[in-house]
TrEMBL record:
Domain of life from the UniProt record: Bacteria
Species of provenance: Pseudochryseolinea flava
Keyword field contains NAD: no
GO cellular component, one term: membrane
Transmembrane segments: 31-52
Name of the protein in question: Preprotein translocase subunit SecE
BP GO annotations: intracellular protein transport; protein secretion; protein targeting
InterPro entries linked to this entry: SecE_bac, SecE_sf, Translocase_SecE/Sec61-g
Length: 63
């Protein structure tokens, strides 16, 4: 049980005193970047899916 107490105490000390936390404005910028990148990725996946679906529909109608 002593090891658990030591671990928790050292973890709390590290989180409160040794970790450098980002500023709120940096977090906002990162969140916007992630949302934009995710939207672009989703649009590319949608386009590829649409091209394959349309191509396969055309192929099956032709055959």
């Amino acid at each position: 049980m002593e090891k658990v107490k030591t671990y928790l105490a050292e973890s709390w000390d590290e989180i409160t005193n040794k970790v450098t936390w980002s500023k709120y404005s940096e977090l906002q910028g990162s969140a916007v970047l992630v949302m934009v990148a995710t939207s672009i990725f989703a649009a590319v996946i949608f386009a590829v899916d649409w091209v394959f679906r349309t191509g396969l529909e055309w192929f099956y109608r032709s055959v």
